[in-house]
Write a structure and sequence with these properties.
alpha/beta; about 15% strand; binds uridine-5'-diphosphate; Glycosyltransferase_2; binds magnesium ion; 8 strands; about 325 residues; 8-stranded mixed sheet; single chain
Length: about 325
């Protein structure tokens, strides 16, 4: 990228039931884009894409009406709720080859949109991937902080390279976007994939605000799902862990077997140990069920991947 060329920017915003705050988001991002166009930071054809992830409220009609007023507002409507990662993917697919670079940002204005200027400056210096990193987790609930901490610790333990405090607020050059789209996995965890594509990468720190309106759309089950997808699509450590447990349980049972046999053969002392019989049954039963669950999790993933089903279904678009 030449420092003097003016890039065509696309901003992708996944939205799920965001009608409470989306007008404010549209207006703030429109102002931002106008300002950048005027000061020639971005090309005049730069645009916004709102991806409606199957909202049940007024989100889509609000996107539609603002797209009539402003032709740089575009929309993608998914036919049903697919989840944040897939909504983002739909947006990435929509903008690929239509822009020089794209920025993804949440619809709730929790991420400081003014940092996009820094993203662009970094892009102009030659960085093809610019990742937004949260300064702190001040506004998060104790529960969210705790689960995030736990998640990073587990990922670290599993040997998954993941960038701490990077959500999906990032800039991708068209090239980087194209490369990410080549990963055709159904179990999508973009934050992990972004570290796999390489490219010259830069980091920009941003403040994380309270949600402008509405409630978090990441329910506990969605958060858990994202964490499990993140782990199982990037790491086979849990499977190896089972092998280790299995190995130690096996050694233990051999030792126990020898011990019990030798007592039975060489001593006439009665073994009263109810516990020593029942405990291993519980223990081994528990280990087996846990192991089956983990193996099942991976088999489930393989099952899903082999079907190669479309990862989202787009109902309509506003071009
Ligand atoms: N989102 C989505 N589909 C979903 C859940 C969330 O498109 O199934 C969007 C949501 O509208 C927002 C972004 O993903 O723009 C992040 O979600 P949210 O702010 O609710 O998550 P949190 O910030 O609480 O982690
Ligand atoms: Mg949010």
């Amino acid at each position: 990228m030449n420092e003097n060329t003016i890039p065509l920017l696309a901003i992708v915003i996944p939205c799920f039931n965001e009608s409470d705050g989306i007008e404010e988001t549209i207006s703030r991002l429109s102002q931002l884009i106008d300002k950048y166009k005027k000061s020639e930071i971005i090309n005049n054809d730069s645009f916004l894409v709102f991806v409606d992830d199957g909202s049940q409220d007024e989100t889509w009609s609000l996107i539609e009406s603002s797209s009539i007023e402003n032709n740089y507002i575009k929309g993608v409507k998914l036919s049903k709720n697919q989840g944040h990662q897939y909504a983002l993917l739909a947006g990435m697919e929509f903008v690929v080859n239509k822009c020089d670079c794209m920025v993804s940002i949440d619809a709730d204005l929790q991420q400081d949109e003014n940092k996009i200027e820094e993203f662009l400056a970094s892009y102009k210096k030659g960085n093809e991937v610019v990742l937004g990193i949260r300064n702190d987790r001040g506004v998060d609930s104790f529960f969210k902080k705790l689960t995030a901490l736990f998640f990073y610790k587990i990922m670290n333990f599993m040997g998954v390279k993941i960038i701490k405090n990077h959500a999906d607020f990032r800039l991708l050059s068209n090239n980087a976007n194209k490369s990410l789209l080549k990963f055709e996995e159904v179990n999508l965890f973009l934050r992990g994939l972004v570290t796999l594509i390489g490219f010259q990468t830069d980091y920009v720190y941003y403040a994380h605000y309270d949600r402008f309106a509405g409630e978090s759309k990441y329910t506990l089950s969605k958060m858990l799902g994202l964490a499990i997808d993140g782990i199982t699509s990037f790491s086979i450590v849990p499977l190896r862990f089972i092998t280790f447990i299995g190995f130690f349980v096996f050694i233990f049972s051999v030792v126990m077997g020898v011990y019990v046999l030798s007592i039975a053969c060489f001593s006439n002392s009665f073994i009263p140990g109810w516990a020593s019989t029942v405990l291993p049954i519980y223990f081994i039963g528990g280990v087996q069920i846990l192991s089956l669950g983990i193996v099942g999790e991976y088999i489930g993933k393989i099952y899903k991947e082999t079907k190669r089903r479309p990862r989202f279904v787009c109902e309509k678009t506003i071009e």
